[in-house]
Amino acid sequence: MWIADHWKDYEVIDCSSGEKLERWGDYTLVRPDPQVIWDTPRKEKGWHKMNAHYHRSKKGGGEWEFFDLPEQWTINYQRLGLTFNLKPFSFKHTGLFPEQAANWDWFSEKIRNAGRPVKVLNLFAYTGGATLAAASAGASVTHVDASKGMVQWAKENAASSGLADAPIRWLVDDCKKFVEREIRRGNHYDAIIMDPPSYGRGPKGEIWKIEEAIYPLVKTCTQVLSDTPLFFLINSYTTGLQPAVLAYMLGTEMKRFGGEVHAEEIGLPVSSNGLVLPCGASGRWEGNPTF
229, 237 in Cβ contact below 8 A? Predict the structure, then answer.
């Protein structure tokens, strides 16, 4: 498992009975987590004195209960010098998936050590965590997301991180259609990052179902890679897309480039008991060092 264990402003304090107790900077939140199927004693004081609690509804969805939480606040990922603006919004999210720091660290090092300019394509780019990590390492990044609000949020994170003038292209677009247009334009990238949702809609109502769409998209994306690509990263929070599936997809479609494929679960350490909370899976293809 790849573990995001370099955070100072974030931690999973404890988890029990379908929920996790987290510290986001100065604030503690309780949010549901389907991985937490055990029922252990809630001894940590944060369980009884949290700043906000997301309650899941039996009918689907849910809502926040606030006690003492600002509308927006920031946390830092000091390891890469990044600052993120957080706010609670629909379906329990805060605007950041902290477990992805394990991947940020990995590809940031690859970009810094590449010895050449690196162009990165970040698809389903959300609020820009991976975009900012790549840009801070020296890459030029094309950031694509179907949500105008998410792209604006990512721009705010870039400004807060001192990357407002970094070479980042911000695009509100359907990821599949954008890649197809880039093929026709003859544009190429040295690295691809994708963090697709299980289900979603594009800016014009395009329907995305990951089980049906992910493999054709990976296959299409290989056509916009440069002759000597650096890496290809796929993240998945969908139960059916286990690490072995991600590895097989990347291994099959990236075979002509050589390189190596690795896939693992990603996780967050739980500070109260030393366990690691699984948070999805990632597949990584990386080019040969001679590239």
Answer: no
